[in-house]
Amino acid sequence: xxxxxxxxxxxxxxxxxxxxxxxxxxxxxxxxxxxxxxxxxxxxxxxxxxxxxxxxxxxxxxxxxxxxxxxxxxxxxxxxxxxxxxxxxxxxxxxxxxxxxxxxxxxxxxxxxxxxxxxxxxxxxxxxxxxx
Length: 132
Hints:
The protein is an all-alpha fold. The protein has one domain (2-131): Farnesyl Diphosphate Synthase, CATH 1.10.600. It is built from eight helices and no strands. The chain starts with a helix and ends in an 8-residue tail after the last helix. The relative contact order is 0.18.
């Protein structure tokens, strides 16, 4: 039963880390590597963590920029200015760390290493520009 609990914890934390990194990539990723244009979530009305954080910091300005999705570069500037990318990056790193700890607590089987490698892959995808 302990293994099932650890796997559940791993899955939740890994999924959250993965999604938060995906949210960062939607603003800061390389379109060629992503295979899609950046800003897709905002254009489709999806409010990810960086955007929600910025709305809390500068509600009027961010709401205006979201309505005018043509000015994605200014929105990205505001997300940097408000620390929203750093906030989302730190959350992604926290969930990745928690997933790694859950994986490390699993029985010593080959699958444990694979689960740890998945977390490493997600962490490696975090855009460097989200740290500034």
